């Protein structure tokens, strides 16, 4: 955060016509005490610094943002409201062409963004300031705005939203729509849904039945999109096949795609192994080359995939404010501009898919869309419900101005100050902007990812409240399915996944008596619930109310998650850990650890000394070190029968596979995933044979909220040469086994899977 000398540097300008504030310590953040009449960002920077200064330029751009914690951590949040308003005045006077000639980052992605901007359209706004652009967007109709949109650069789009109030953002969002070809998805007055049928164990029955559940509430028209626990081609392929079979059985293959949200390389491999079973292809994207490297993608890789998407369904992207800086790639500029550059990347890739489809004789408008996951990261990005609303409105407008069909995951982690009821409050304020779609789950709680988002009943309520419609062909399907009548009213089968299961089997030719299939369906439903996957059935007093018992269970899980976040490793647990070496991070307490994750990524000096001693004692004899951290849920480790059986099975499997495992268990308090990389650097950097692989298996409590107390195993095994380069090791070379718990992915099964992934990263042998 900006403070002390740095803040003083930003506030040293003088204007004799404006009274100076009384002397005193400058506030933290970007301090802009005064601006001159007609002054723009570049004039201000030259006045303060004597010449263009990139750091101050980025700070002024960031200071114009509505406050969010993530911008404060990067050092670009305004120090106070006066500074924020002054930054906005500077932006209003800044010409678009000057912004375009001073990009916040120049890299391969920026070059691509320039290549895909329409110079003819841009000429329409030649000489405009951002203030003029804002007025144009507020006063013009959709046709005029769309004529200009292809010529707007991503930095310009990211800056103009900073100047708008929430009400102004809604006004612009309600004008511009970019529907998918041949459908009403993303059209005015429509609100779609991505069914997100996640399973803690990748159980295809869990996944299939959540789709039945969504269909029973007439929800699900954009994509059936499952986040996999395992990203192996075998596991991803099994889910792809199950979802593909489901849409084919219901005759929906030309209406709605399916998707497994594994890395795009894995999806390509599954398509190679099982041709025709994958649907739309997914990838998370970022706002700079370095941040995209964290996702193990590049501009060239994504262009190559886009060039190959010549079928009906193209690409599906996910983004979210804050992902870049939390992965260590802030580059000194704010979250809104990072997010806007992601949308520029998506626009460029959409153009490439369009060319591929034109070459295949399809319409030039490709089936490409983007889901903005707003709130998934946590309180280090933003904490409050007001900030969540602001983020969503900014992103809707930026996405639409980039020509994208953009949906929202309006979500909250359990360590944010956004409750179950707050999410409803947020939706009421976001929905007037008419995003293309929202997530859809049986309840607000995701049973695998452990965060809060929109449930099926939320869709029912929002359709009633705002008059939004489901895509026409899917609405007709839901009527044929019998869950709504010809007038769109719920039938007796509304909210009954067993009824949908019956229709599914009938479509497959199963003509057993209805009562037999219903009994079988009820049994399947009970088994899925017993595995910890909440399944909605029926409703409360209104069709959009959860069934009361399920509502009570949801709130119980929420309360347990809040308790889990602040739980700590007990003395009894610590004493029972065999061969334990205690380590701690720089987090002073649990609150700082939760609100400032970076403190949990670095070890304190005493812990580094302990690792140096351990390294000397080991003398390079071991190639695997086990590390255990409390993470965001110490109960995942301390619950009886969870951690120790896993560690015992893991050690046995590692030894049998030929690995040499250090006898100690490193036990880290207030540890984040990246703390494991620092442990590896301390133990292995510069050690022995530079080409020899050395592994850290970091066992860490996952964020709570799934209803399970789960932990993950992060497996990182580069060579000693890579460990020697501080900061080189990151998530892009790490593999993970997640959802480990007695009630989810059984420890006995997770241990051999951990070893299998290690063998892929660091095979044992000559």
UniProtKB/TrEMBL annotation:
InterPro entries for the chain: Aldolase_TIM, EutB, EutB_dom_2_sf, EutC, EutC_C
Tree of life domain: Bacteria
Name of a matching Pfam family: EutB
Spans annotated as Disordered: 1-35
Enzyme Commission (EC) number: 4.3.1.7
Keywords assigned: Lyase
Molecular-function GO term, any one: ethanolamine ammonia-lyase activity
Broad EC category: lyase
GO CC annotation, single: cytosol
Extent of Pro residues compositional bias: 19-28
BP-aspect Gene Ontology terms: amino acid metabolic process; ethanolamine catabolic process
Name under which the protein is recorded: Ethanolamine ammonia-lyase subunit EutB
């Amino acid at each position: 955060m900006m403070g002390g000398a740095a803040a003083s540097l930003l506030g040293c300008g003088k204007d004799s016509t404006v009274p100076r504030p009384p002397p005193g310590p400058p506030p933290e953040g970007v301090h802009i005490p005064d601006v001159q009449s007609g002054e723009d960002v570049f004039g201000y920077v030259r006045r303060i610094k004597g010449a263009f200064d990139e750091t101050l330029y980025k700070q002024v751009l960031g200071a114009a943002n509505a406050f969010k914690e993530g911008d404060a951590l990067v050092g670009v949040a305004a120090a106070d409201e006066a500074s924020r308003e002054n930054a906005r005045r500077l932006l209003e006077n800044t010409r678009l062409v000057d912004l375009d000639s001073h990009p916040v980052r120049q890299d391969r992605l920026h070059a691509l963004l320039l290549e895909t901007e329409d110079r003819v359209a841009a000429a329409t706004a030649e000489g405009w300031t951002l203030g003029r652009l804002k007025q144009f967007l507020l006063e013009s109709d959709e046709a005029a705005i769309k004529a200009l949109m292809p010529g707007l650069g991503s930095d310009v789009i990211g800056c103009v939203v900073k100047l708008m109030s929430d009400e102004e953002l809604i006004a612009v969002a309600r004008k511009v729509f970019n529907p998918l070809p041949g459908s009403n998805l993303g059209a005015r007055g429509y609100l779609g849904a991505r069914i997100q049928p996640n399973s803690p164990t990748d159980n295809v029955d869990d996944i299939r039945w959540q789709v039945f559940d969504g269909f029973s509430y007439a929800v699900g028209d954009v994509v059936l999109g499952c986040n996999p626990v395992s990203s192996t081609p075998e596991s991803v392929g099994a889910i792809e096949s199950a979802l593909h079979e489901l849409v084919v059985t219901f005759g929906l293959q030309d209406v709605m795609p399916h998707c497994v949200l594994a890395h795009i390389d894995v999806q390509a491999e599954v398509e190679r192994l099982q041709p025709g079973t994958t649907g739309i292809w997914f990838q998370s994207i970022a706002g700079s080359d370095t941040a995209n490297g964290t996702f193990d993608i590049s501009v060239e890789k994504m262009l190559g995939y886009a060039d190959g998407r010549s079928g009906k369904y193209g690409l599906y992207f996910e983004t979210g404010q804050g992902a870049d800086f939390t992965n260590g790639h802030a580059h000194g500029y704010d979250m809104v501009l990072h997010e806007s550059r992601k949308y520029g990347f998506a626009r460029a890739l959409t153009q490439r898919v369009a060319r591929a489809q034109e070459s295949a004789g399809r319409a030039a408008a490709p089936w490409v869309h983007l889901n903005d996951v707003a709130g998934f990261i946590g309180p280090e990005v933003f904490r409050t419900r007001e900030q969540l609303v602001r983020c969503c409105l900014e992103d809707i407008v930026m996405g639409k101005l980039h020509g994208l069909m953009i949906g929202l995951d309006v979500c909250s982690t359990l360590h944010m100050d956004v409750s179950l009821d707050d999410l409803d409050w947020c939706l009421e304020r976001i929905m007037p902007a008419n995003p293309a779609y929202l997530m859809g789950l049986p309840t607000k709680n995701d049973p695998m990812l452990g965060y809060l988002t929109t449930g099926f009943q939320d869709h029912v309520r929002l359709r009633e409240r705002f008059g939004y419609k489901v895509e026409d062909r899917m609405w007709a399907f839901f009527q044929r399915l019998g869950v709504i009548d010809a007038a769109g009213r719920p039938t007796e089968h509304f909210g009954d996944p067993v009824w949908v299961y019956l229709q599914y089997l009938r479509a497959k030719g199963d003509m057993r008596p209805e009562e037999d299939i219903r009994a079988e369906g009820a049994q399947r439903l009970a088994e899925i619930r017993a595995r910890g996957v909440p399944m909605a059935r029926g409703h409360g007093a209104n069709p959009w109310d959860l069934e009361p018992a399920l509502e009570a269970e949801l709130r119980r899980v929420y309360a347990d998650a809040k308790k889990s976040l602040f739980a700590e490793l007990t003395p009894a647990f610590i004493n029972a850990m065999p061969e334990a070496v205690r380590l701690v991070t720089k987090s002073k307490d649990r609150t700082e650890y939760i609100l400032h994750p970076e403190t949990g990524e670095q070890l304190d000096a005493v812990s580094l000394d302990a690792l140096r001693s351990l390294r000397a004692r080991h003398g390079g004899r071991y190639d695997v070190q086990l590390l255990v951290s409390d993470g965001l849920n110490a109960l995942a480790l301390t619950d009886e029968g969870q951690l120790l059986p896993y560690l015992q099975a893991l050690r046995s499997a590692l030894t049998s596979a030929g690995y040499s495992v250090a006898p100690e268990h490193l036990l880290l308090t207030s540890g984040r995933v990246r703390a494991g990389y620092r442990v590896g650097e301390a133990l292995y950097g510069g050690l022995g044979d530079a080409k020899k692989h050395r592994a850290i298996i970091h066992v860490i409590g996952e964020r709570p909220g799934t209803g399970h107390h789960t932990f993950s195993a992060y497996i990182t095994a580069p060579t000693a040469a890579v460990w020697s380069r501080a900061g080189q090791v990151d998530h892009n070379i790490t593999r993970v086994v997640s959802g480990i718990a007695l009630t989810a992915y059984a420890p006995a099964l997770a241990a051999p899977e951990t070893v299998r992934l290690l063998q892929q990263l660091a095979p044992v042998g000559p």
